Amino acid sequence: MGDFVRVATVGELPDPGATVVEVDGDVIALFHVDGAFHALDDVCTHDGGPLASGELTGHKVACPRHGAKFDIRTGAALSMPAVRATRAHDVKVEDGGVWVRLRSGHGVDGPVGQAPVAKPAPLPIAAPAASASSTGAALPAPSATAAGALCEDSVRELLKQVKDPELFVNIVDLGLIYGVTLAPSAETPGKQQVSVDMTMTSPACPAGPQLIGDTKRALAAHPEVAGVEVRIVMDPPWTPDRMTDDARDQLGIF
Ligand code: FES
Question: Which fold has domain 144-251?
């Protein structure tokens, strides 16, 4: 562990307020809330967002990129899409100054409990039916036997092919599917129209368009599907409680 480094004078940072300081070559977010100072790595563990620029609400700061929240006192990740803490550091006030000492230990390198991940290959989805996106990659159509007769359960099985591109967990186990509805197609007798109510881990989720496209393509590949509609539902908001145990294992959340 290094020495304390003076990074600011007590009066220069408003309360509440945040700024960026440099300590031993590291970029640190310094927060001033309720008369106390707190220091975190200025790095969101989701995808590197600058936490000092985020919105501060009490002792929570929201990453300005996709909205993950962190506790400024501990660095704990409080909401998706971040699943692990950012590093918190020691702070003291002395001689009219604010001093920070870097803590060693786990920082932002590598997800906790999650194997280092390579970016997954694009979803191998079959040449879509008429309703599928023309921008999607081709994927072999599942046979009726493999996919099962079309029903809510088989739809959910097909949707397990669709993975969140940032978390690498399928959207069913993440708890993003709020509902599945099947109805006979008026235009194509013998086939069904599928409607999926889907949510996102955050309103600003950048993966939304990809997840919608992948969902349509995955379902359109089933021979009994005439068309697919995906409705985005933000109420009730998604929470980590909706994840299955499998998803928690994959994300290293215990
Ligand atoms: S980079 Fe912070 S939530 Fe995505």
Answer: GMP Synthetase; Chain A, domain 3 (3.30.300)
Ligand 1 close to Cβ of residue 44 (< 6 A): yes
Question: Are 41 and 28 in contact, with CB atoms under 8 Å apart?
Answer: yes
- Quick: pLDDT tens for 179-195: 999 999 999 999 999 99
What's the CATH fold of domain 5-101? Answer: Rieske Iron-sulfur Protein (2.102.10)
Task: Return d(Cα 33, Cα 10) in angstroms, integer.
Answer: 12
Name the residue at shortest CA distance from atom 4 of ligand 1. Answer: 66
Of 80 and 179, which is predicted with more confidence?
179
Best substitution site from 46, 70, 83 to test ligand 1's pocket, by max atoms within 8 Å of Cβ? 46
Q: What is the DSSP letter of 186?
A: S
Q: What is the residue extent of each domain of the chain?
A: 5-101, 144-251
Give the SS3 label for residue 174.
coil
Residue 54 near ligand 1, beta carbon < 6 Å: no
**For the whole prediction, is pTM greater than 0.70?**
no
